[in-house]
Amino acid sequence: MAANGGTRNAGGPGPPGSASREKRDRERIQILGELHGEVMVFQPMAIKEISRGGAQVETVFPLQLDSLHDFRLTLGDRSVVVKARVAHCSISDVDQELVTYRSGIEFIEPSEPVFAVISGFIDAVKDGRRGI
């Protein structure tokens, strides 16, 4: 087995354990003190209401007021990602150990293609309810 355990370092080209690539190809520095970041992770949510300007969603975790997030919306057979700001968030249900939160989100400058998908979905739902 190679000196690095037979695994490849992220960012390091070359075959695992190659002698020319025992170290990563970019220097890392140790952070003295604290340096914080965030990670974007897609979690399931239920879309309860939607408009061309935003939506009401239900999650099992609270969303921080005024925070910005990328939301993946599956609208019929189309899926889009839209940036949105959390306008409000509150507990909507408590069931034994599960807490459900309902949040209002405001879409932030969706691109024309994303706006078209959202608008098309809303129009299709309305038409379907009218029996058209």
Describe the structure in brief.
By secondary structure, this protein is of the alpha+beta class. The protein has one helix at residues 112-130, and strands spanning 46-50, 54-59, 68-75, 78-95, 98-107.
Summarize the structure in words.
The protein has 132 residues and is α+β, with helices and mostly antiparallel strands. The chain folds into two domains: 36 residues, no CATH class; 85 residues, predicted glycosyltransferase like domains (Thrombin, subunit H). It contains one helix and five strands. It has a five-stranded antiparallel β-sheet with strand order 1-2-5-4-3, with helices on one face. It is extended, with a radius of gyration of 22 Å.
Task: Considering the chains and any ligands shown, give keywords for the structure.
extended; Thrombin, subunit H; 5 strands; alpha+beta; disordered N terminus; five-stranded antiparallel β-sheet
Strand adjacency order, main sheet? 1-2-5-4-3
Which band does the percent of strand residues land in? 35-45%
The number of helices is 1
CATH fold type of the largest domain: Thrombin, subunit H
Mean pLDDT: 86
Helix-strand layout with pairing:
Blueprint: E1 46-50, E2 54-59, E3 68-75, E4 78-95, E5 98-107, H1 112-130
Antiparallel strand pairs: 1-2, 2-5, 3-4, 4-5
